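Predict the 3D structure for this chain.
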Amino acid sequence: MSKINIAIAGVGNCASSLLQGIEMYKNSPENTIGLMNYDLGGYKPGDINVVAAFDVDKRKVGKSLREAVFAKPNCTTVFYRDLPDYPVQVQMGHVLDGISEHMADFPEDETFVAAEEEPCDVVKALKESGAEILINYLPVGSEKAARFYAQACLEANVGFINAMPVFIASDEFYAKRFRDNNIPIIGDDVKSQVGATIIHRTLTKLFENRGVILDRTYQLNFGGNTDFLNMLNHSRLASKKKSKTQSVQSELKVPLTADNIHVGPSDYVPWLNDNKICYIRMEGRGFGNVPLTVDLKLSVEDAPNSGGVMIDAIRCMKLALDRKVGGVLNSISAYSMKSPPIQYTDTEAKKMVADFIEGRRER
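Done. Predicted structure below.
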């Protein structure tokens, strides 16, 4: 099979984990722990090849990709340090709304520090690199920046995977433009392998399937990476809260009223680094109208948790490119994203992805 040439916007923790995983599974093919699919439509993890990268932090811009993925403020677990000398230098992206003003009040090792460089011509860089797919790993709240990279993909004829909670694939304006240009898009807001959202969705569906009325629920998350620091600015959270909330609500026949559901980040604890702590509480009523309560705690390394999903999203998009299929890829979007254009249960979405891999048409 041919290589899958990808570009990355945002060389943060998620990019670091993704690259570590690609190299680990490439060099240890007998180790498939943590993969949903080792071989996906003929493509293996080692077939993914990074050809371009964009960031705005002074510790990453101008550096080799290998150096940048381990540079501050990245703080995720290093599970495979032996990365190759990628022939890729991180280029200066466009800051736009990518850095929240409040982050200037925190130590440099914990926050973003913008490089004093002129931004590159992203469209030109994508074309010259031979990138087929761009992954958007920008910080939460980067609405203008996310749309900038979506537009760049349209101009460069590059597939777009929107891993952050800005509504692009689920916005008919962009969905139509990608469809009209026959360019595939996956989005929005990556759903971790076993994370807060999928656990909350599964429990919500369990209540529904077993005849238990869910009266109220919350999901509180905190951690010590730049994502949680960034989200201390609550003005940047509107899309994130909406994305996580509607993902849970979609499992209910009758959605909860706004005052009976709270889903979202709650705080930043620096020493946790990339460890994410989640508390979920669900209050309902079962047989005889008798109360039932579930309290759950999840502790997980945040960035690797999304890598197992992203590695499948990339390969599904490559299959779409091979087949000259454009527009929103509904199956893998429903399976890998919190806010796809069409919500399906996780069980339905898994079957849809299997059908897509086998070559059956999207719904």
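The domain at 4-191+304-357 is CATH 3.40.50.720 (Rossmann fold).
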